[in-house]
Amino acid sequence: MPIGITALGAYTPERVLTNTDLEGMFETSDEWIVSRTGIRERHLSADGEFASDMGVRAVRDLQDRYPDVLDGVDLVVCATSSPDAYFPSTAALVAGQVGLAGAGALDVSVACSGFVYALSVAQGMIMGGTARKVLVLGAEVLSKIVDWQDRTTCILFGDGAGAAIVEDVPDGYGFQSFVLGADSAGGSSLYKFAVADRIPGVPVGTGNAMLGMNGREVFKFAVRVLGDSGEQALGKAGLKGSDIDWLIPHQANVRIIESACSRFGVSLDKTVINLDRYGNTSTASVPLALREALDDGRVKDGDQLLLVAFGGGLSWGASAMRW
Ligand code: ACO
């Protein structure tokens, strides 16, 4: 039996921070941010709201759309780069608040590639017989780990969450392939310290206590890896770029997405882009984009999708799937 996503929910907090608002905070301009990134505004969590709160709201959205959707969930996997705590896991915190206490719960830490990784974890758990029905979350409050004095990083990120149910699906639907990868040789280009204030490539005592990033290095890596991993995922599934109905990329920078489109020969109007309104929401970006494309009728039953993501690690994840 193939395995795939049978339900999807999403949430972004109400508070919106526009590029014009940022102009009042430090030396920048709407024109600079839009031309370099495509981002116009982002949604930010309130003080006292954290990743688990984002995740719970996304699950509430899921329940509003699909009544009784949590019945039978026996595992919760949460991808997050901004967890409430080292432990308990954000997955366990969300599970406890949505009536899933007792289900298995674990976090997946692969920065912005995390949602694709978490889907593959869910698939593997079901294939191995450990779980039957998995709640997969991407839940983030990146706004709480960026340095708001650092104009090269804080302009990029926003908060939000996605929630998906992964389980058996009918023949002809679901996941066709996964490609996952990581290489710590680039770890110093994008990092957030935890217990140790050292990362290979970041000399001790010289790092950023908040999210540290070398934007140009991440940009070059992303352009290469989105194309490579997407092509590998298509190849593993016996597909080619012309088979894609919708490309669902991680929403980091419209110029990175454009380069992936040209690599696959997919036009921009067959690519879901919503970073202009949400910025980079890390693990929430792929489910937010997919949910939007389902709501407005772009993605339809049976469509061929390619999910591609990249992030800290440096890491990458891609999946071919039929919706
Ligand atoms: N407003 C105005 N000027 C700025 C700003 C800003 N917000 N930020 C930087 N600048 C200036 C720089 O200081 C620099 O000035 P200088 O030439 O006088 O030194 C100039 O603009 C150019 O800076 P660059 O860093 O070269 O700009 P670039 O074109 O590379 O764009 C950006 C920067 C947008 C960060 C780009 O490199 C990028 O998007 N990289 C990918 C980052 C990314 O996707 N990160 C998330 C990964 S996912 C995850 O796991 C979290």
Structure description:
The protein has helices at 19-23, 30-37, 51-65, 90-97, 114-127, 151-154, 215-236, 254-264, 275-278, 285-295, and strands at residues 3-11, 16-18, 41-43, 75-79, 104-108, 134-141, 159-168, 174-182, 190-191, 212-213, 246-249, 304-311, 315-322. The protein folds into 2 domains: 3-168, Thiolase/Chalcone synthase (Peroxisomal Thiolase, Chain A, domain 1); 174-322, Peroxisomal Thiolase, Chain A, domain 1, CATH 3.40.47.10. It has a 5-stranded mixed β-sheet, with helices on both faces. The protein has a 4-stranded mixed β-sheet with strand order 8-13-12-11, sandwiched between helices. A two-stranded antiparallel ribbon has the order 2-3. The mean pLDDT is 97. Strand 12 (304-311) and strand 13 (315-322) form a beta hairpin. It is built from 10 helices and 13 strands. The active site is at residues 112, 250, 280. Pathway: Lipid metabolism; fatty acid biosynthesis. InterPro entries: ACP_syn_III_C (IPR013747), ACP_syn_III_N (IPR013751), FabH (IPR004655), Thiolase-like (IPR016039).
